[in-house]
Write a structure and sequence with these properties.
Blueprint lengths: L2 E5 L6 H14 L3 E5 L8 E7 H10 L9 H11 L7 E3 L2 E5 L6 E5 L2 E7 L1 H16 L4 H19 L1
Parallel strand pairs: 1-2
Antiparallel strand pairs: 2-3, 3-7, 4-5, 5-6, 6-7
Helix pairs in contact: 2-4
Length: 158
């Protein structure tokens, strides 16, 4: 899915995180990131999805990500992490961790430019959106397809 980048994040190396966030914004594709936060034993994997792409996926996905199965593991990891009292700043970017769902919004100059999603949720959204979008025809496509089918039926009769 997109680009895969491993990032080691420690205090006070903020420029490394800022570079990765900038990369994701510049390429406009999902970037899989592994964060090794200082003081934590477990690495945190997430997919950094540009805001426009996430909006598109969420538009086409027929339902919300299910709250069972693989999400349980990522939720358990999220619950182990202490809640942040304040947003965390990395250069021009500010990270806002949501209390529910494991997502983190990434903003630059007050505008959300991407979100960090658990890998399972990002994969699920991308697949569902693709499946629904591939089955969708707008009015012009539907009319052209119906016309095509009508011509095929009359060709079989002859």
């Amino acid at each position: 899915m997109g680009i895969e980048v491993d990032v080691v994040v420690g205090h006070p190396v903020n420029d490394e995180v800022e570079r990765v966030l900038g990369l994701a914004e510049a390429v406009g594709e999902p970037v899989t990131v592994t964060f090794l936060w200082e003081g934590r034993e477990r690495a945190e994997r997430a997919v950094l999805v540009p805001a426009a792409m996430l909006a598109l996926w969420e538009h086409w996905a027929p339902t919300a990500y299910p709250a069972s199965g693989a999400a349980e593991e990522s939720r358990a990891v999220a619950e182990e992490q202490p809640e942040l009292a304040h947003p965390v700043e990395f250069g021009a970017f500010t990270l806002f961790r949501r209390r529910v769902g494991g997502r983190t919004a990434v903003a630059r100059e007050g505008v959300v430019v991407a979100e960090l999603l658990p890998p399972d949720e990002a994969h699920w959204l991308r697949e569902k959106a693709r499946d629904v979008r591939q089955g969708f025809m707008d009015a012009k496509q539907r009319a052209a397809f119906e016309e095509f089918l009508a011509r095929q039926a009359s060709g079989d009769d002859q």
